[in-house]
Design goal:
- The protein has about 150 residues and is mostly helical.
- The chain has a domain at about 110-150.
- Helix content is about 60%, strand content about 5%.
- It has helices spanning about 1-10, 40-45, 50-60, 75-105, 115-135, 140-150; strands at about 25, 70.
- The chain has a two-stranded parallel ribbon with strand order 1-2.
- Helix 3 packs across helix 4 and helix 5 (about 115-135) runs antiparallel to helix 6.
- It is extended.
- It starts with a helix and ends with a helix.
- About 0% of the residues are buried.
- The model has no long low-confidence stretch (mean pLDDT about 90).
Length: about 150
Protein backbone atom coordinates (compact mmCIF):
# COMPACT_ATOMS: atom_id res chain seq x y z
CA UNK A 1 0.00 0.00 0.00
CA UNK A 2 2.69 2.48 0.98
CA UNK A 3 4.74 2.08 -2.25
CA UNK A 4 1.54 2.61 -4.26
CA UNK A 5 0.89 5.81 -2.30
CA UNK A 6 4.42 6.97 -2.99
CA UNK A 7 4.06 6.28 -6.71
CA UNK A 8 0.64 7.94 -6.77
CA UNK A 9 2.00 11.21 -5.41
CA UNK A 10 4.52 11.34 -8.29
CA UNK A 11 7.08 12.76 -5.88
CA UNK A 12 10.67 11.56 -5.94
CA UNK A 13 10.49 9.20 -2.99
CA UNK A 14 13.24 6.68 -2.37
CA UNK A 15 11.60 3.36 -3.10
CA UNK A 16 12.29 0.08 -1.37
CA UNK A 17 15.06 -1.82 -3.13
CA UNK A 18 15.36 -4.89 -0.95
CA UNK A 19 13.15 -6.41 1.72
CA UNK A 20 14.89 -8.25 4.52
CA UNK A 21 12.90 -10.54 6.78
CA UNK A 22 13.74 -12.81 9.66
CA UNK A 23 12.24 -15.79 11.38
CA UNK A 24 11.65 -15.95 15.13
CA UNK A 25 14.08 -15.40 17.96
CA UNK A 26 13.00 -17.40 20.99
CA UNK A 27 14.02 -16.91 24.59
CA UNK A 28 15.62 -19.91 26.32
CA UNK A 29 13.49 -22.22 24.15
CA UNK A 30 10.17 -20.39 24.66
CA UNK A 31 8.47 -17.35 23.19
CA UNK A 32 9.30 -13.80 24.17
CA UNK A 33 6.40 -12.19 26.01
CA UNK A 34 6.56 -8.63 27.27
CA UNK A 35 3.25 -8.98 29.14
CA UNK A 36 4.44 -12.10 31.00
CA UNK A 37 7.95 -10.74 31.54
CA UNK A 38 9.61 -13.50 29.52
CA UNK A 39 12.68 -12.37 27.60
CA UNK A 40 15.11 -9.50 27.42
CA UNK A 41 13.81 -6.18 26.20
CA UNK A 42 15.40 -2.74 25.78
CA UNK A 43 14.84 -1.59 29.36
CA UNK A 44 16.06 -4.84 30.93
CA UNK A 45 19.05 -5.01 28.55
CA UNK A 46 19.94 -1.46 29.61
CA UNK A 47 19.71 -2.45 33.29
CA UNK A 48 22.35 -5.17 32.78
CA UNK A 49 24.87 -2.39 32.04
CA UNK A 50 26.26 -4.53 29.22
CA UNK A 51 27.39 -2.23 26.41
CA UNK A 52 24.87 -1.87 23.59
CA UNK A 53 27.49 -2.96 21.02
CA UNK A 54 27.80 -6.31 22.78
CA UNK A 55 24.02 -6.76 22.57
CA UNK A 56 24.10 -5.79 18.89
CA UNK A 57 26.90 -8.26 18.22
CA UNK A 58 25.09 -11.15 19.87
CA UNK A 59 21.78 -10.38 18.18
CA UNK A 60 23.57 -10.40 14.82
CA UNK A 61 25.50 -13.53 15.76
CA UNK A 62 22.40 -15.52 16.72
CA UNK A 63 19.97 -13.64 14.48
CA UNK A 64 17.14 -15.64 12.92
CA UNK A 65 17.91 -14.84 9.28
CA UNK A 66 17.61 -18.36 7.86
CA UNK A 67 15.45 -20.05 10.49
CA UNK A 68 14.28 -19.74 14.06
CA UNK A 69 17.07 -19.28 16.58
CA UNK A 70 17.10 -18.90 20.31
CA UNK A 71 18.50 -16.40 22.72
CA UNK A 72 20.16 -18.05 25.70
CA UNK A 73 22.11 -16.43 28.47
CA UNK A 74 24.78 -19.13 28.19
CA UNK A 75 25.11 -18.39 24.46
CA UNK A 76 25.26 -14.65 25.14
CA UNK A 77 28.00 -15.04 27.76
CA UNK A 78 29.94 -17.55 25.64
CA UNK A 79 29.84 -15.37 22.52
CA UNK A 80 30.94 -12.33 24.53
CA UNK A 81 33.76 -14.15 26.31
CA UNK A 82 35.00 -16.40 23.51
CA UNK A 83 34.40 -14.44 20.33
CA UNK A 84 34.61 -10.81 21.36
CA UNK A 85 37.08 -10.93 24.23
CA UNK A 86 39.28 -13.94 23.53
CA UNK A 87 39.34 -14.00 19.74
CA UNK A 88 38.72 -10.49 18.43
CA UNK A 89 39.92 -8.59 21.50
CA UNK A 90 43.11 -10.64 21.75
CA UNK A 91 43.83 -10.16 18.03
CA UNK A 92 43.35 -6.37 18.23
CA UNK A 93 45.45 -6.19 21.41
CA UNK A 94 48.33 -8.17 19.84
CA UNK A 95 48.30 -6.07 16.67
CA UNK A 96 48.37 -2.82 18.64
CA UNK A 97 51.17 -4.07 20.92
CA UNK A 98 53.18 -5.17 17.89
CA UNK A 99 52.77 -1.81 16.15
CA UNK A 100 53.60 0.06 19.35
CA UNK A 101 56.72 -1.96 20.12
CA UNK A 102 58.14 -2.47 16.59
CA UNK A 103 57.01 0.64 14.75
CA UNK A 104 56.81 3.29 17.50
CA UNK A 105 52.99 3.41 17.33
CA UNK A 106 52.94 4.28 13.63
CA UNK A 107 51.42 1.85 11.13
CA UNK A 108 54.09 1.37 8.47
CA UNK A 109 53.48 2.07 4.79
CA UNK A 110 52.83 -1.39 3.35
CA UNK A 111 54.33 -0.38 -0.01
CA UNK A 112 57.74 0.06 1.62
CA UNK A 113 57.72 -3.44 3.14
CA UNK A 114 56.76 -5.67 0.26
CA UNK A 115 57.39 -9.37 0.45
CA UNK A 116 56.21 -11.94 -2.07
CA UNK A 117 54.30 -13.78 0.68
CA UNK A 118 52.10 -10.69 1.04
CA UNK A 119 50.65 -11.22 -2.44
CA UNK A 120 48.88 -14.48 -1.57
CA UNK A 121 47.73 -13.04 1.76
CA UNK A 122 46.40 -9.91 0.05
CA UNK A 123 44.51 -12.04 -2.49
CA UNK A 124 42.93 -14.11 0.31
CA UNK A 125 41.90 -10.97 2.20
CA UNK A 126 40.43 -9.41 -0.94
CA UNK A 127 38.40 -12.55 -1.63
CA UNK A 128 37.04 -12.53 1.92
CA UNK A 129 36.28 -8.82 1.66
CA UNK A 130 34.41 -9.35 -1.61
CA UNK A 131 32.40 -12.21 -0.09
CA UNK A 132 31.69 -10.08 3.01
CA UNK A 133 30.47 -7.23 0.78
CA UNK A 134 28.22 -9.57 -1.24
CA UNK A 135 26.62 -10.87 1.96
CA UNK A 136 25.98 -7.37 3.28
CA UNK A 137 24.61 -6.20 -0.07
CA UNK A 138 22.17 -9.13 0.07
CA UNK A 139 21.29 -8.09 3.67
CA UNK A 140 22.70 -11.34 5.05
CA UNK A 141 24.15 -9.70 8.12
CA UNK A 142 24.73 -12.89 10.07
CA UNK A 143 26.61 -14.50 7.17
CA UNK A 144 28.69 -11.33 6.81
CA UNK A 145 29.53 -11.42 10.51
CA UNK A 146 30.62 -15.07 10.23
CA UNK A 147 32.95 -14.18 7.34
CA UNK A 148 34.39 -11.33 9.37
CA UNK A 149 35.00 -13.58 12.36
CA UNK A 150 36.51 -16.36 10.22
CA UNK A 151 38.90 -13.99 8.45
Amino acid sequence: MFPASQIGTQDTWTKLHHLSTTDYLTYEGGKFSKSRGIGVFGDSAHETEVASDIWRFYLLYCGPETGDTKFTWDGFISADNNLLLKTLGNFVNRVLKFINSRYHSIVPDWAEHHESSFDAFKEDVNQLLAQYTRELDAVKLRAGLFIFLAG
